[in-house]
Amino acid sequence: MTFVGIDIGTFETKGVLVDANGEVLALARRRHGISTPRPGHVEHHPETDWWADLAAVASELMEHPRARDLQAAAVSAIGPCVVAVGEDLAPLRPAILYGVDTRATEQIEDLTNRLGAAEIFQRCGNPLTSQSAGPKIAWIRDQEPQAWARARWFMTSQTWLVAKLTGAVVMDHATAGYFHPLYDLREARWNLAGCEDVVTSDRLPRLEWTTTIAGTVHERASAETGLPVGTPVIVGTTDAPAEAVAAGVVSEGSLMAMYGSSGYFIRVGSSPITHPDLWSAPYVFQDRYVLAAGTAATGTATRWISDVLGITDDEDSVTFGRLLELAEGSPPGARGVLALPHLSGERTPFQDPDSRAAVVGLGLEHTRSDIARAVLEGAGHAVAEAILTYLRAGVPIDRVVAIGGATRNRIITGTVSTVTGLTQQIADSPGAAYGDAFLAAFAVGAVPDLSAGPGWWSSKGTVEPDAGHAAQLRSDHEAFVALYRTLAPWNTSRRIRVEEALG
Predict the structure, then answer these.
(1) Same domain, 193 and 309
(2) What pLDDT was estimated at residue 502?
(3) Where are the alpha helices (DSSP H) in 62-133?
(4) How much is the pLDDT for 453?
(5) Domain boundary pick from 192, 213, 240
(6) Is the peptide bond before 241 cis (omega within 30 degrees of 0)?
(7) Which of 136, 191, 445, 473 has the most neighbouring CB atoms within 10 Å?
(8) How far is the C-alpha of 85 from the C-alpha of 148, rounded, in Å?
(9) Is residue 116 located within the same domain as residue 198?
(10) 355 belongs to a structural domain
């Protein structure tokens, strides 16, 4: 028995073919970019960035001899996104991405004022932020009324892909939990009270749990992807829960720290916990919940500084190896240089779409190495601040499992462990696509229960707090937070000036 998992990320699509014991038999990947047509707008083109990647990756995986024994497939993708599509599933505009897209500021304010912050929190377990999908649907209504009126469905990324594969329009509860204020967390259903002018229930997908079989691959999709006609496809989920499953984060008190293009954090529990600085949602398994957090730029910051410093190579591993080598020419603390890596606002705990990046403390004595290290440590400080939000909220963290490409950067992960005081296990996993494959296997009974899952999960080491540099990095962390608070009013006025200039 084999299983296919495919994950569409911010900059890359990755797919794996896995057997019932969790062994990866084949891996395929494709790169894509993002579109930023205006400040605060971050988009993908579903047909070219998502479907074309999925078709290419699936076709490559199906060339493996063991693919003939394919039992099920699963897809995850970045989210929560908003994709407005017609009856024929054709996108009516580019997809609006998750919390890094901050365009819906006015809609967030309007819905909050209309419904009341307390009512929204009672219903959703969350305030409205740039991570909320509901205000982005309202933005389409306000700014692009023709597209809004023509839309048969408002979907998210993997919902659209599963619909392309099977014809079924269905969304998992784990993703719907971020469609605030449209989803009732405790009742696990759509709740559109007070939002009827934003969207009606018949324009939203049917809700199911992640491992439910959505449908089977139809002939047209098979011809484009190579997946056999009749292959079961599960409902699926967004990339972050799939990453958590890939890392083996399924038990109470475990925290996944995803070091991707952005940072995302999932703490698993058996009952819903709500906190105004964190996001509550169902998990991929029924009767399990997550308390989540996110940062806006982790791997994105490393890519940006690599480009700025002129050390980018066609191979990411070469680029990031060069960056790490350059940064290690500067000591911890970067000789007094401090970076705030808010290249597209920031999420937890500030929830500030206006925040922007800064590098301070520069003098004539500083070098490219100091700047490189400051940005990497800044990315670590951002992750650490998100994790510290859990601890300040009184939410216990029993175990931290780190996953994602940026875990290879020991400056970032070392800063996180030293500032938080927490040991991190580094997951030995291909990432979210591997979690998808596990969920597909679980859905058809090849993995009978979660206690049978540990054979799929392994670690390739730990990152411990560095007692020798703890005083320096924790002092820098206090300065990091103070720098954000100092710049926040100026950044808000900057955004207003930019909007006025753009008309």
Answers:
(1) no
(2) 67
(3) 105-115, 117-124
(4) 62
(5) 240
(6) no
(7) 136
(8) 9
(9) yes
(10) yes
The model's confidence at residue 139, banded by pLDDT at 50, 70 and 90, is very high
pLDDT in tens, 426-443: 999 888 999 999 999 999
> How many structural domains compose the chain?
2
Q: How confident is the model at residue 301 (pLDDT cuts 50, 70, 90)?
A: very high
Do 157 and 83 form a contact (C-beta atoms < 8 A)? yes
Is 304 found in the same domain as 233?
no
In a domain, 126, yes or no: yes
Q: Where are the beta strands (DSSP E) in 251-296?
A: 254-259, 263-269, 279-282, 289-295
* Radius of gyration of the chain, Cα coordinates, nearest whole angstrom: 22
Q: Are residues 17 and 138 in the same domain?
A: yes
Are 91 and 16 contained in the same domain?
yes
Q: Look at residue 455 in the predicted model and tell me its pLDDT.
A: 79
Q: Can you give the pLDDT at residue 410? A: 96
Alpha carbons 174 and 289: distance in angstroms, whole number? 8
Which of 225, 269, 355, 292 has the alpha carbon at shortest distance from 79?
292
The answer to whether position 474 is within a domain reads yes
- Could you tell me which of 429, 420, 101 has the C-alpha nearest to residue 258? 429
Tell whether 311 and 378 lie within a shared domain. yes
Find the CATH number of the domain harbouring 218: 3.30.420.40
* Residues 206, 136 within the same domain: yes
* Residue 117 falls inside a structural domain: yes
Containing structural domain, residue 113: 2-240
User: Which pTM does this prediction carry?
Assistant: 0.85
Do 318 and 181 lie in a common domain? no
Q: Which secondary structure element, helix H or strand E, spans residue 95, and what is its range?
A: strand 95-96
The domain boundary residue, chosen from 191, 211, 240: 240
| pLDDT for res 454 | 65
Closest CA to 285 of 442, 81, 155, 76: 442
Question: Angle 360-361-367 (CA atoms, 0-180°, nearest 5)?
Answer: 100
Long-range Cβ contacts of 146-152 (<8 Å, 24+ apart): 147/84, 147/92, 147/93, 148/84, 150/84, 150/86, 150/92, 151/84, 151/85, 151/86, 151/92, 151/203, 152/85, 152/86, 152/87, 152/203
Report the candidate in 60, 61, 51 with the shortest Cα–Cα distance to residue 19.
61
**Cis preceding-peptide flag for 232 (omega within 30 of 0):** no
Per-residue DSSP letter, 314: S
Structure tokens at 454: 């540990």
* Three-state DSSP state, 437: helix
Contact status, residue 42 vs residue 82, Cβ threshold 8 Å? no
Region 214-223: what's the mean pLDDT? 98
